Amino acid sequence: MIPAMPTPARRRTRPEPPARPREGFWTRLLRRARRRLIRTHDRLIHALYDLISWLDVHAPAEKRYFRVAIFGSSRIRTEDEQYARVRELARQLSYAGCDIVTGGGPGLMMAANEGARSGAYRYGTRSFGLTILLPLEEQPNPFLDEVQAHKTFFSRLHQFIRLSHAYIVVDGGVGTTLEALMVLQLLQVRLLGHRPLIFLGPMWHGLRDWLREEVVARGLAGPDLLDLAHWVDTIEEAIEIVRAERDRFLEGNEVVLPPPVEEAEERGAGEGATAGI
After folding, report:
1. Among 26-40, 143-157, 159-173, 258-272, which range has the highest average pLDDT?
2. Which segments of 54-196 are extended strands (E)?
3. Can you point out the beta strands (E) in the chain?
4. Mean pLDDT, the chain, as a whole number?
5. Positive or negative torsion for Cα 246, 99, 92, 140
6. Would 51 be classed as within a structural domain?
7. Is residue 187 situated within a structural domain?
8. Is residue 271 situated within a structural domain?
9. How many Cβ atoms are within 10 Å of 146's Cβ, its own excluded?
10. Does the structure show a pLDDT above 70 at 137?
11. Which residues lie closer than 8 Å to 129 by C-beta, 6 or more apart?
């Protein structure tokens, strides 16, 4: 018995697309005008980015103040141990004469700004908040001396980079990681110099291991990638790194920190007593 031949599989074909209606003169004219408008819009945005880059390169560097950016989560509550830890970190940095820059929101950002406010009464340091207009973002925290609102993450990240001379990364989520990796990339391509990036706490050990095992080990980055950042577990280690950079900054720019408030008050009291005599 001769076996039956297998039935050949039918090739499935897609249905023919519906016939496109014939384009009229005015429809074609509007379509081309819209395309030209979109291209002009894109070129204008690119030209504005070029202008911003040119201004950034030629703008005079800030040599009067030393500022430290602290990146952290907005979800940490005030009663959390990490909140008190970051507040103490910012307080000690503020007492060392450093301005503090954060995202200006709640959580660990507020902890940093609250700690910075303590030092503001001693050295006249300031507390900056670079806020972002988001549907879920709360109002700026009440410990800010200066608030600058941004509508995009791009401009906010750019100002973080420009405004700060050191960066400390505490516990945080996607936004904190984005900010930290942005700084790390700029250090990697040598667009930032002498600006320490400090990952503080055991949370970032996993990121360090991933960079070592999945990025550096596979040749996706140079072997010195991990050395571009500081990986510490205590606020004392972070403060020591920032102090060293602050001293280098002050020596290079001959900046003199204002005297402590206690000395200023004593001097004022002495002058008042002399005037009374």
Report:
1. 159-173
2. 66-71, 98-102, 127-132, 146-150, 166-169
3. 66-71, 98-102, 127-132, 146-150, 166-169, 197-200, 230-232
4. 85
5. negative
6. no
7. yes
8. no
9. 12
10. no
11. 101, 102, 103, 104, 105, 109, 113, 140, 141, 144, 146, 147, 148
Spatial distance between the Cα atoms of 197 and 168, rounded to a whole number of angstroms:
6
The CA dihedral of 79, 82, 84, 89, to the nearest 10 degrees, is -160
Specify burial of residue 212 (Cβ count, 10 A radius: 0-12, 13-18, 19+).
middle
User: What residues make up the domain containing 228?
Assistant: 65-253
Average pLDDT value for residue range 107-130: 87
Tokens 């516990």 found at: 171
Residue 119 lies in a domain: yes
- Specify the CATH number for the domain of residue 180: 3.40.50.450
Residue 93, both tokens:
């940095």
| Residue listed under structure tokens 């002495």 | 270
Number of domains in the chain: 1
Convert the pLDDT of each residue in 221-264 to its tens digit.
999 999 999 999 999 999 999 999 998 988 877 665 555 555 44
| One-character DSSP codes across 123-136 | H---EEEEEE--TT
Which of 95, 89, 53 is CA-nearest to residue 69? 89
Short-list 164, 114, 99, 110, CA closest to 139:
110
Q: Which pair of tokens denotes residue 216?
A: 């550096």
> How far, rounded to the nearest angstrom, does the alpha carbon of residue 232 sit from its chain's CA centroid?
19
Structure confidence by residue, pLDDT tens digits, 202-219: 999 999 999 999 999 999
